[in-house]
Design goal:
single chain; 408 residues; mainly alpha
């Protein structure tokens, strides 16, 4: 096994455990809130609590990640999340945990994620040859999909057989394992350009933004991804209520839907990792918009007795999302200078999440006034429109014709 594969395998194993334990906590919280309140507003507030810190801190954390040793940044983020989760576990043990405490935990976990996600994504091009980036993106999708498949089942088991305390403590253990594996690997620091200037927070933020705006094709990809998240994130918060209210399901059916999405993502990630897809990555992204939109719209048109078809459509949606995410990740990693990747990823996270938060604030209104099924139909139509329009944007068409994302 080559050195880079050995290093990546060690990191991947630790992240698998950590991602799985985090997924268990996320799904357990979602199920607990859904069953406790049955409120779309509560689920929307939980989603906002998990997104707002990354939205606010993202541009700043990206600058810091590009300055710092990225391994230490990941270790520090994991340790912070573990500490916050342990505190909430103690509150559950004492019987003093409230809904507000859960919101606070989600917000603090988001602070850790604001450092961890750009750090690990910016580290991959420093460890992996460019020719293997798509396969590595597929492997990472497999990692996330395994967590999505097993997370709901383990969450439902733990909260029913044990308690939220054990769910939270499992995440603390997962973070400890991830930290342990990182201690055994070396992640190189990117070389700074010869003309690079000294530290300057806002100047470095602007440099990260320029990495996006000076490439017309990449800029328009960002625009369409941002539009997509405006519809996707609020819709994701409605999946449990779609299962509960429209299909008259329960905890088992909610977990089955999450498992279906994860299984689809596993298949999509495996396709990228094993088949070495040769299709132009920009074409893949645009095509996945169309397929995702179709699965959402058709889900909204299903009758109450069509739950099995909802599962199937969710499976297809998971496949599409995995391919979309993998293709977009590779474009980012092969287009942006490694020394600026942390900033670009954090800016991407903040900019794409901002419209989604606006959508989340309207989730309760959408669920009660427009209707959950209509929300699926509208979001699906929006994705189809984005996928269709993106094929006609000149800068994106130029990326497709070139066969490479490396356009200035």
């Amino acid at each position: 096994m080559s050195p880079w594969k050995r290093t990546f395998a060690i990191i991947w194993a630790g992240q698998l455990v950590s991602t799985l334990s985090s997924a268990v906590v996320g799904y357990a919280v979602m199920f607990w809130m859904s069953l406790k309140t049955g409120s779309a507003e509560v689920l929307a507030l939980a989603s906002i609590a998990g997104l707002l810190p990354q939205l606010i801190l993202g541009p700043f954390t990206g600058v810091l990640v590009d300055r710092w040793d990225r391994k230490r940044a990941m270790i520090g983020a994991d340790a912070f999340v573990a500490l916050c989760t342990a505190v909430l576990a103690v509150l559950f043990i004492l019987g003093r945990a409230k809904l507000g405490h859960v919101y606070l935990l989600l917000a603090l976990r988001s602070v850790g994620g604001a450092f961890h996600w750009p750090a690990i994504q910016a580290s991959i091009p420093l460890l992996v040859p460019e020719t293997a980036l798509l396969r590595v993106a597929g492997a990472n999708q497999v990692l996330n999909s395994i967590a999505t498949i097993l997370g709901p089942a383990l969450a439902a088991l733990l909260i029913n057989v044990f308690s939220m305390t054990w769910v939270l403590l499992s995440d603390v253990a997962g973070a400890a394992i991830a930290i342990g594996t990182l201690l055994f690997v070396h992640i190189p620091r990117p070389e700074r350009k010869a003309d690079a200037r000294g530290p300057g927070l806002f100047r470095e933020m602007k440099e990260g933004l320029r990495e996006i705006t000076r490439r017309a094709g990449l800029f328009w990809l960002f625009v369409f991804v941002t539009l997509g998240t405006f519809f996707l994130i609020p819709l994701a918060a409605l999946f449990p209520l779609m299962t509960l209210k429209h299909f008259a399901g329960g905890a088992y059916e909610m977990s089955l839907i999450e498992i279906a999405w994860g299984a689809g993502a596993l298949l999509g990630g495996a396709a990228m990792g094993i088949l070495k897809l040769k299709t132009n990555k920009v074409v893949l992204i645009n095509a996945m918009y169309l397929i995702l939109g179709a699965t959402f719209a058709l889900s909204g048109l299903l009758p109450p007795g069509g739950f099995s078809f909802f599962v199937g459509l969710t499976l297809i949606g998971g496949i599409s999302w995995a391919i979309f995410s993998g293709a977009f990740t590779v474009i980012m990693q092969t287009t942006i200078e490694p020394s600026a990747l942390g900033r670009v990823y954090s800016i991407y996270g903040s900019v794409s999440m901002a419209p989604a938060l606006i959508g989340l604030l309207q989730t309760g209104f959408v669920a009660e006034r427009i209707g959950i099924t209509n929300a699926f139909i509208i979001s699906g139509a929006a994705f189809i429109l984005i996928g269709f329009v993106s094929f006609f944007v000149p800068a994106i068409r130029a990326m497709i014709r070139s066969g490479s994302p490396r356009l200035s």
